[in-house]
């Protein structure tokens, strides 16, 4: 490929990344303002526990997952190991934040005696989250990340595929 074509394709990258970050922070700000001003704020024990769910879903599944996807483009001049660690860390953080949101809505439904899976939204959401967990788990297993965790000799996980990838 011609070097000038590669430079032309990446010339807008900083502006597009900045725009994505501005839109992501704006989505978080609008969601937080809507929930705090019009829905009564946030609480883990009170009736506002449900409000934790939308904020955690936007933060985890939209903002942090989006940032994890951008890592390889934004930090393309850094070492692959550093970008992989940041990429994986953002995905794990997104998973944890989203799990907090799901726990909040299930606990809220239990306190109010509302059935948990009563709408298409809840079925699609739990399907999406389950597939996300499977994707992150498969990536960790297939890339050998668990191999390093259990290298004390307790469990030796098989490592599939080449060790030097990407």
Automatic annotation (TrEMBL):
Annotated TM spans: 12-35, 55-75, 87-108, 120-142
Keyword hit for Translocase: yes
Pfam assignment, any one: Cytochrom_B561
Keyword ATP-binding attached: no
Cytochrome b561 domain residues: 19-166
GO molecular function: metal ion binding; oxidoreductase activity
Function recorded in the entry: Transmembrane reductase that uses ascorbate as an electron donor in the cytoplasm and transfers electrons across membranes to reduce monodehydro-L-ascorbate radical in the lumen of secretory vesicles. It is therefore involved the regeneration and homeostasis within secretory vesicles of ascorbate which in turn provides reducing equivalents needed to support the activity of intravesicular enzymes.
InterPro entries on file: CYB561/CYBRD1-like (IPR043205), Cyt_b561/ferric_Rdtase_TM (IPR006593)
PANTHER family with a match to the protein in the record: CYTOCHROME B561-RELATED, TRANSMEMBRANE ASCORBATE-DEPENDENT REDUCTASE CYB561
Subcellular location(s) per record: Cytoplasmic vesicle, Secretory vesicle, Chromaffin granule membrane
Alphabetically ordered keywords of this record: Cytoplasmic vesicle, Electron transport, Heme, Iron, Membrane, Metal-binding, Translocase, Transmembrane, Transmembrane helix, Transport
UniProt source species: Engystomops pustulosus (Tungara frog)
Catalytic activity: monodehydro-L-ascorbate radical(out) + L-ascorbate(in) = monodehydro-L-ascorbate radical(in) + L-ascorbate(out)
One Gene Ontology cellular component annotation held by this UniProt entry: lysosomal membrane
Protein name, per record: Transmembrane ascorbate-dependent reductase CYB561
């Amino acid at each position: 490929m011609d070097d000038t074509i590669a430079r032309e394709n990446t010339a807008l990258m900083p502006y597009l990344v900045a725009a994505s970050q501005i839109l992501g922070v704006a989505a978080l700000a609008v969601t937080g303002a809507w929930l705090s001003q019009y829905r009564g704020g946030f609480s883990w024990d009170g009736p506002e526990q449900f409000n934790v769910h939308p904020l955690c879903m936007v933060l985890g599944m939209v903002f942090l997952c989006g940032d994890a996807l951008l890592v390889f483009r934004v930090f393309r001049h850094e070492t692959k190991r550093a970008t992989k660690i940041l990429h994986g860390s953002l995905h794990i953080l997104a998973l944890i934040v989203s799990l907090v949101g799901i726990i909040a809505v299930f606990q809220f439904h239990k306190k109010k005696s509302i059935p948990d899976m009563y709408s298409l939204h809840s079925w699609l959401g739990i399907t999406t989250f389950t597939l996300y967990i499977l994707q992150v788990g498969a990536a960790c297993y297939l890339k050998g990340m668990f191999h390093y965790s259990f290298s004390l000799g307790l469990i030796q996980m098989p490592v599939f595929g080449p060790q030097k990838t990407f």
